[in-house]
Amino acid sequence: xxxxxxxxxxxxxxxxxxxxxxxxxxxxxxxxxxxxxxxxxxxxxxxxxxxxxxxxxxxxxxxxx
Length: 65
Description:
Blueprint: H1 6-21, H2 26-64
């Protein structure tokens, strides 16, 4: 989806964001977006590791029987 935007589309989006939010608000928005993305990645990693641990536990229980 994002690969179809291209450089001109990305520049247009950045210019529109600058016009709408202004130069003082953009760093705050970028920081908040970065923190949100980082938290999402951390949650995804934690969920994946929990599922893998459960699968390993089930595999160990099945091989012991």
